[in-house]
Amino acid sequence: MNTVTQIFAVLAGVIHLGIFAMESLLFSNPKVSRGFVGNAPVTPEVKTFAFNQGFYNLFLALGAIGGVIAGGATGKAIALFSCACIVGAGLVLLISQPRLWRGAALQIVPAGIALGAALF
Q1: Domain boundaries, given as residue ranges, for the chain
Q2: For residues 116 and 105, what is the distance between their CA atoms, to the nearest angstrom?
Q3: Other beta carbons within 10 Å of 79
Q4: Spatial separation of the C-alpha atoms in residues 111 and 49, rounded to whole Å
Q5: N or C: which end of the chain has fewer CB within 10 A?
């Protein structure tokens, strides 16, 4: 795995660690929850959903970072699969909630660069 792929896969992972923290640990903070749900009420069901969604992001982060750390063909496959899932999730966000394009770009760009760099 080349250096550019490694750097951007780790960056994508670190971003998703931050998203995990916001969704699963800090969601009760009004400034944090507003970034995800706007002015909609934060019900216990929404908090539960965010908590669960945060763990999806944690697992993607661990795959991207862990794959780079593991190295070799297996590590590369894990890191690139995680990056592909991150790009896919970012595209779903962009299509379903265009107003959240910044968040979608934050997901898509680093993971997409990692995938593109792996091709060369």
Answers
A1: 3-118
A2: 15
A3: 31
A4: 24
A5: C
Where does residue 43 fall: left (phi above 0), alpha (psi -120 to 50 degrees), or beta otherwise? beta
- For residues 53 and 49, what is the distance between their CA atoms, to the nearest angstrom? 6
Q: Counting Cβ atoms within 10 Å, is residue 57 exposed (0-12), middle (13-18) or buried (19+)?
A: buried
Cβ neighbours of 56 (radius 10 Å): 16
pLDDT tens readout for residues 47-59: 999 999 999 999 9
Closest CA to 13 of 92, 49, 67: 67
The pTM assigned to this predicted structure is 0.92
Cβ pair 79, 67 in contact under 8 A: yes
According to DSSP, residue 71 is labeled: -
Q: Backbone phi, then psi, for 51, in 5-degree steps?
A: -60, -45
Structure letter (DSSP) for residue 38 = T
